[in-house]
């Protein structure tokens, strides 16, 4: 019984650490960081990684839905396709390419969403959440 209580206590502390801070504002910052570091994240660039946008989009977009600390199944898109990220979890999450340069979004609060463009180069891109590295997903770019 004591072991169970210790495990539950530890889990509750871990989950409490996942919550956001109130002094971060509303979290609707319109500058999602997408690109290779040279791109300001506010517009498309020659590198093929367009800027992010936390608002909705009139364009049709493939969607990565974050729920239950998971990204879901691998997503296959065309080069430079518009990708929408929706956070349905109560914790903050982002989508960061493991290569560190292909795409890296801002953290999303619960209910927030943003869009970014897939890399121009075909390939398989593994990604993770910077806050929860145990989360992983895959973006497949194919013409």
Topology of this protein?
Blueprint: H1 2-18, E1 62-66, E2 75-77, E3 82-87, E4 96-97, E5 113-117, E6 123-128, E7 136-141
Parallel strand pairs: 1-3, 2-7
Antiparallel strand pairs: 3-5, 4-6, 6-7
How can the largest sheet be summarized?
A: 4 strands, mixed
Rg over alpha carbons: 16 Å
Q: Round the mean pLDDT to the nearest integer and report it.
A: 75
Proportion of strand residues: 15-25%
Total separate domains? 1
Shape-level CATH architecture:
Sandwich
In the CATH hierarchy, the third-tier topology is known as Immunoglobulin-like
By DSSP (H or I, 4+ residues per run), the number of helices equals 1
Give a concise summary.
By secondary structure, the protein is of the alpha/beta class.
Explain what you see:
- This protein is an alpha/beta fold.
- The chain has a single domain (26-141), classed as Immunoglobulin-like (Sandwich).
- It has one helix at residues 2-18; strands at residues 62-66, 75-77, 82-87, 96-97, 113-117, 123-128, 136-141.
- The strands form 2 sheets. It has a 4-stranded mixed β-sheet, with no helix packed on it.
């Amino acid at each position: 019984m004591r072991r169970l209580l210790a495990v539950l206590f530890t889990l509750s502390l871990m989950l409490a650490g996942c919550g956001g801070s109130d002094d971060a504002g509303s979290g609707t910052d319109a500058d999602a960081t997408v690109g290779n570091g040279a791109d300001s994240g506010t517009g498309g660039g020659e590198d093929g990684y367009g800027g992010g946008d936390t608002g909705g989009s009139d364009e049709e977009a493939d969607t990565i839905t974050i729920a239950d600390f998971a990204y879901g199944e691998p997503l296959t898109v065309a080069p430079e396709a518009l990708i929408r990220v929706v956070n349905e979890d109560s914790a903050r999450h982002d989508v960061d390419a493991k290569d560190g340069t292909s795409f890296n979004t801002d953290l999303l609060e619960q209910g927030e969403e943003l869009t970014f463009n897939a890399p121009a180069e075909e390939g398989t891109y593994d990604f993770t959440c910077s806050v929860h590295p145990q989360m992983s997903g895959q973006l497949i770019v194919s013409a």
